[in-house]
Specification:
With 300 residues, this protein is an alpha/beta fold. It folds into two domains: 93 residues, 3-Layer(aba) Sandwich (Rossmann fold), CATH 3.40.50.10860; 131 residues, NAD(P)-binding Rossmann-like Domain (Rossmann fold). It is built from ten helices and eleven strands. The strands form three sheets. The protein has a six-stranded parallel β-sheet with strand order 1-11-8-7-5-6, sandwiched between helices. Strands 3-2-4 form a three-stranded parallel β-sheet, with helices on both faces. Strands 9-10 form a two-stranded antiparallel ribbon. Helix 2 crosses helix 10, helix 6 crosses helix 7 and helix 6 packs across helix 10. It is globular, with a radius of gyration of 19 Å. The two termini are 28 Å apart. The structure holds NADP nicotinamide-adenine-dinucleotide phosphate.
Length: 300
């Protein structure tokens, strides 16, 4: 059984991206720049934003940090996004989700210039992804593909079962895998799927993005399947300094006995998401400068 370490792979991706960013800086006399917008004081969002800024610093990507109190109005936030869209030095804009309830997340997402949408959530980028056109691709599904590629797991002709149909994971994951360069046969399951196990059991590759501990158990998975666990669930754990442990959606202990390969949580898909965000920022910077990213070496 192969453990698919996103932690190890993200270190490789980050080192490659750091090298490309150095070449970018040599050529354009500036670093790629990511604007990170945080609204409120949600601890999980603060942690994510901290990790993203830290990754920028490690890789030689400039970051512009903007923080607002949770009572900011939607108009004020949209004005901030408009300013960042107009700022020629900003290549990528990340507004950390979730936003407070009085703010329409879709309106904020749609306000971001698609060329700076490094999360890949803008309807224009999602549409291009579906059409198989070049776009900034959502980081988590892109990270899953990078794991499969790195470990030599073919998707051509494979049955893939994705559990979860969110706009940020399940749907873009399905769109990527059904493209002609991937050729997977994709089934997307959700909370209204009848007899979930029957679909999961048929799959050569299972991708769980549910948000529920032990949603995928060993009896649901066929022998030799590849299992990708996107889920990140915080479980109270007084033995941990943080007060919680991170668990995926898959019953790792038992499923790993049947799977041919599996991602752990933590250390699987999670670190890849940040790696792909850094790569998308580099890509956005290249496209904005009219440069071909492949000129800076390596695959992108
Ligand atoms: P989400 O928007 O809550 O979507 C969850 C999906 O799972 C929905 O489509 C839902 O169905 C489906 N679902 C819920 N219960 C189910 C059940 N019992 N059986 C089958 N399907 C069920 O979540 P998300 O944003 O996609 O995130 C999913 C998980 O991935 C979360 O744990 C999140 O923290 C994690 N995540 C991790 C990363 C990373 O970097 N590793 C990035 C993003 C998200 P309905 O559509 O019918 O409600």
């Amino acid at each position: 059984m192969l453990i698919l370490s996103g932690k190890d792979l993200s270190a490789i991706v980050k080192a490659e991206t750091a090298g490309k960013c150095r070449l970018f800086e040599n050529r354009f006399s500036r670093k790629p720049c990511l604007a990170v917008v945080l609204v409120g004081t949600d601890p999980a969002s603060q942690t994510y934003v901290r990790s993203k800024k830290k990754a920028c610093e490690e890789l030689g990507i400039a970051h512009l940090d903007i923080e607002f109190a949770s009572d900011i109005t939607q108009t004020q936030l949209l004005e901030c996004v408009a300013d960042l869209n107009a700022n020629p030095l900003v290549d990528g804009i990340l507004v950390q989700m979730p936003l407070p309830r009085h703010i329409d997340e879709l309106a904020v997402t749609e306000a971001i210039d698609p060329a700076k949408d490094v999360d890949g959530f803008h309807p224009q980028n999602i549409g291009k992804l579906l059409l198989g056109q070049r776009s900034l691709v959502a980081c988590t599904p892109k990270g899953v593909l990078r794991i499969l590629d790195h470990y030599g797991i073919q998707t051509d002709g494979k049955d893939v079962c994705i559990i979860g149909r969110s706009n940020i994971v399940g749907k873009p994951m399905a769109a990527l895998l059904m493209q002609r360069d991937r050729n997977a046969t994709v089934t997307v399951c959700h909370s209204r799927t009848k007899d979930l196990a029957s679909y999961v059991r048929r799959a050569d590759i299972v991708i769980a993005a549910v948000g529920c501990v032990n949603a995928i158990t060993a009896d649901m998975v066929k022998d030799g399947a590849v299992v990708i666990d996107v889920g990140i669930n915080r479980i109270p754990d007084p033995t941990k300094k943080t007060g919680f442990a991170l668990k995926g959606d898959v019953d790792y202990e038992n499923v790993s006995k049947k799977a041919s390969a599996i991602t752990p949580v933590p250390g699987g898909v999670g670190p890849m998401t940040i790696g792909m965000l850094m790569e998308n920022t580099f890509l956005a910077a290249c496209y904005r400068e009219g440069a071909d990213p492949s000129e800076f070496g390596g695959a992108v």
